[in-house]
Amino acid sequence: MSLSYYLNKIRGSSTEATPTQAHGHVASSVGLRSDFSTILGFLHNSYVGSSLKLLVLGSIVETGRRLFRWLIDRFGIQYCTTIRFSQGDPAYEWIVLFLVRLFVLFANTTVATNSLVLQTQENVWRRSREFTVSASNSRRKWAVRAASDATVKANAEYVPTYQQPQLFRWRGYWVEIKRTGNVNNVDSVSPYGFAGHYPGHGSSIYITIYTLDMNVLSELVEEARLRYLEVNRPNVVIYLTDSPQFGPSQVWATVKHKMRRPLNSIILPEGVVDSLVADAQEFLSTENWYIEAGIPHRRGYLLYGPPGTGKTSTIYALAGALNLEIYSLSLASNFVDDSYLQRAASAIPKHGLFLIEDIDCAFPPREDDEDEEELIALQMAGGRRRAPRHGARTTRSMVTLSGLLNVIDGVGSEEGKLFFATTNHIDRLDGALLRPGRIDRRVQYELATPPQAHALFNRFFPTARFPDPVLIPTVEPIFVPIQPVIISTAAPTAPVELDAEKISQQVLDGPPLLTAVPALEDASLEATRPPIAALADTFAAAVPSGEFSTAELQGYLQGHKTRPAAAVRGVRAWVASVRAERAESERRKEERRAKTEQRKATLAAAAGGPGLGLQGRTGGLPVEPLSAAAVPVPVAADEASAASVNGVKGAHVNGNVEKSASNGVVNNNTE
Ligand SMILES: Nc1ncnc2c1ncn2[C@@H]1O[C@H](COP(=O)(O)OP(=O)(O)OP(=O)(O)O)[C@@H](O)[C@H]1O
């Protein structure tokens, strides 16, 4: 086909010549001159001309761009600054919250306090046309609100998932945001709702600001941080460790937000909580003193005592009161070893509260657990492995005592970090851990005392919600004895003094509640109840001292949320049933212990008689002494004695008298 044919086609020649016709035409034309004019005509065609212009323009732009880049690289010219936020770092949370439209709980506060930021966020996220919808849950607090109507129930969250860089204006500067991370993993969702970008190596956010002024950058980060604090004011932020899925440097990958708990909701002997708060407050405000005195600016606290007595709750309430973020780690996690612990501790920012729960699991177990472990070792040697008894501590922490001590010594030596540890078994702890400088204060928690039961009852049934009823006689005074009837409406006549305590006792002593018709029975019981104060006294007197944890009492009262009189009426039966349960559980434990002993003896006999040591009987299975014993840590005589006497009320430790929290005094090693 000839060129003229196609040129004609492009020109839109009305005479549609076939290739053969065109060939004949060319053959009969004047040749070259005609072709040249055809090419000129081709160039004048609007499509081709425009394309060529674009081609030239594009080349110029690209050359210019390359020249610009070359100049920038050659002379090191800066025109923008880029910062990277990696998941697992607290700053990542600040920036995510800064970028994501505030949702659910705090929307109103935000509009009022930071409309500029909110506007920016809306602009950024509104462009997203790709969302992951997920049912609201407590981990994801922020996402895009689907409906503009604030009254719409927030049962679903619409989480932007786009990956493309987004450009927006912030305080007059152009800012570009970009995210990286594997988009395929949609199961993993950040606490703030970035769905689908949390793969093996985590997600990063890059923010590029088109300015040379570094201050703008730090202002943006500071604004993000302040905003984060503002939004989280009603919350305590708790960072938790996760299996190291986000890479070795990202240890605090999970974030939880708990509503702040008022200090006065912690029911402990008077002065204990206040004293702890004052101590921590003083520590945080005396950094210079520590520097001048050459003492590492760190402070360690150990809260110990039975489960459910309020150790963790105290720490959360304290962190809320002092605006501290909690970095909580469990030594029992199977991915936490010495190096992980070290990385976790060093990633805690200044004024962070480092919390290690159940710190005893880094130490050798008690005798009964040892029995269990020895049995398992024997069974493994015999080729029979059975499931460990429920609750038995068969896996010990991978953290060694020396690793733990190194971390505690290093925790914020200059950074003002608070270290808190909790344990239910202080007797398992090594004296080296308990020495001042590592643990500076110890607080003993005990099972609930009557005053605590009283306070708990009052907390459950505040008089504001359960006003004192007015006691009036209902029958003619001549018919004695007078039966008191209590009504909760305003008194039509002057109230008659009645013995509330006596009536309260009658409530307690009354017949057991019929579970078949509780509603009817409760209604009459509550309608004739005495005032809350009298009921609280009766309740506290009916709870045996030092036998139940506050958590257990709380659990019982929760079953009677709106029925204080029923709570009093049922407390004796509850005490009896818990005692019976415990006795039964103790009996089963004894049985198990006896069986374990028996099996041990049988297996030992089968493995070669009682003369063989465990090492021999396990066929060379390593039976290493565990952390504390394995690590040669010098323990001062007073520390050793401290360890041995801990848990005993009034024990003397390092020359100081340790008193239990229930006595209202907290032991202070350094004072
Ligand atoms: N002294 C207390 N004051 C107020 N609430 C308490 C107290 N003790 C326990 N509770 C309640 O019991 C529950 C468990 O308390 P918490 O977790 O603080 O106990 P714990 O001593 O840390 O237990 P564990 O040793 O098992 O970790 C919480 O809901 C808490 O509100």
TrEMBL record:
SMART domains with a match to the protein in the record: AAA, BCS1_N
Keyword list, A-Z: ATP-binding, Hydrolase, Membrane, Mitochondrion, Mitochondrion inner membrane, Nucleotide-binding, Transmembrane, Transmembrane helix
Reaction(s) catalysed (UniProt annotation): ATP + H2O = ADP + phosphate + H(+)
Locations listed in the record: Mitochondrion inner membrane
Keyword Mitochondrion: yes
Bias (Gly residues) ranges: 608-619
Pfam families per record: AAA, AAA_lid_BCS1, BCS1_N
Domain BCS1 N-terminal: 55-266
Record field: compositional bias (Basic and acidic residues): 579-600
Membrane topology field: Single-pass membrane protein
Gene3D superfamilies found in the cross-reference section: P-loop containing nucleotide triphosphate hydrolases
Polar residues: bias regions: 657-671
Listed GO MF terms: ATP binding; ATP hydrolysis activity
Region Disordered: start-end pairs: 579-619, 652-671
GO cellular component terms attached to this protein's record: mitochondrial inner membrane
AAA+ ATPase domain ranges (all copies): 297-449
PANTHER family documented for this protein: BCS1 AAA-TYPE ATPASE
UniProt similarity note: Belongs to the AAA ATPase family. BCS1 subfamily.
Protein name in UniProt: P-loop containing nucleoside triphosphate hydrolase protein
Organism: Mycena metata
